[in-house]
Amino acid sequence: MKKAEKSFTVNGRGHLAIGGVDTLELAGQFGTPLYVFDEEAIRRTCRRYREALGRSYGEGGLALYASKAFSCKEIYRIVGSEGLGADVVSAGELYTALEAGFVAAKIYYHGNNKTDDELLFAMEKGVGAIVVDNLPELRRLAKLRQRMDRDQDVLLRIKPGIDAHTHNYIRTGQIDSKFGFALETGEALEAVRETLGTEGVRLRGLHCHIGSQIFDTQPFVDAARVMARFMGEIRRSCGATLTTLNLGGGFGVQYIEGDDPVPFEETLAEVAVALRETCKEEGIPQPFVLVEPGRSIVNSACATLYTVGARKEIPGVRTYVSVDGGMTDNPRYALYQAQYEAVVANRAGEERNEHVTLAGKCCESGDLLGEDMPLQHCDSGDILAVLCTGAYNFSMASGYNRIRRPAVVMVKDGLARLVVRRETLEDIVRCDI
Ligand SMILES: Cc1ncc(COP(=O)(O)O)c(C=O)c1O
Description:
Elements: E1 8-10, E2 16-18, E3 21-22, H1 23-30, E4 34-38, H2 39-57, E5 61-66, H3 73-81, E6 85-88, H4 91-99, E7 107-109, H5 116-125, E8 129-132, H6 135-145, E9 152-159, E10 181-182, H7 187-196, E11 201-207, H8 218-238, E12 244-246, H9 264-282, E13 288-291, H10 295-298, E14 302-314, E15 318-323, H11 332-336, E16 342-344, E17 354-359, E18 368-375, E19 383-387, E20 407-412, E21 415-420, H12 425-428
Parallel strand pairs: 4-20, 5-6, 5-13, 6-7, 7-8, 8-9, 9-10, 9-11, 11-12, 12-13, 15-17
Antiparallel strand pairs: 1-2, 2-3, 4-14, 14-15, 14-19, 16-19, 17-18, 20-21
Bound molecules: pyridoxal-5'-phosphate.
The site of pyridoxal-5'-phosphate has 19 residues, from α10.
């Protein structure tokens, strides 16, 4: 088990515990598959972000929880109570946040293809800012805004042209990306000009997000410099002083033993120095800085519990261990061979003495949670945990094969509470006519 993961321990019975709670008891009480989150670990990370930003910017910085990583009412309550804002990317995420009582003014609305309904909904609810992705969207927004009695704050999403050395699907800051306005082509400056000339829309600042699961500091520093230089250029060529700079999320986390991300505190501190220097060089005031961490807030605080079913040993080939979930609750191996660590929860104290392919229960050969995974011996009925599944698992879960989505449990102070109930068969046909 990873030493860094304080959420996961082995208790006196040799069982895996999360936040001090025995996972076998959780599996018995709530069933499997089951996402189990350690609430205190989430809160600790939120505080680390607040403290790190406070050290660099005083009151001039704020972390927005990128709720695409894991969205349900309870997580908005938790991060909101820790003083964070939120980034949402659909009416569904916005609705969930508002239903949880999240302050609308601390919500930033993203997306590369927002519908009119979504734009109107966001404006009606009074989100802090809409992050405009493209000019047709800006023009629609300006038209829809006429139905409101106030101006709308916006940020523009910029592609800073930074290669963030991460997986292709989760790299977003380079020119060949569906998100935002490119700097190199002059498109971004044109967008700034048009926004400044658009009635009813207030250009508060810029946004960029260079990718996800980034282990190094340098791409963040480079992006901050590029964005601050662009703010300087805007001031010189358009006479506008922008007050907000959102540098996105993407801070890497550890999934498996070999993963070695730079702690986000170090990255944030270096970014702050670079930003201060560049603002000075450009002769612009230090903007209010936003960051949007998602994965790094929730991922390491969660494990998914499964019940082991069929075991198939194919001599000279491999051993398949099938569990009662799979790509429907965690599609990340199927999507981009994301690596995870697994542990047999009822033998957590024992050596991992075999290598197996962990398979799900979908009618799909690619429905795997990992291949060649070191694991304690396990058989039908054992409880298996896949660790560090807090981000982009529940939120990416699907209903393929009409498999019911698992429940979500939070543990805190030794107690577990259900925060999302398991889907029922009735839920499965709820929208069917
Ligand atoms: C615009 C934006 N902000 C923030 C994030 C969160 O990234 P992460 O979960 O890697 O911190 C993403 C993720 O793709 C994103 O697209």
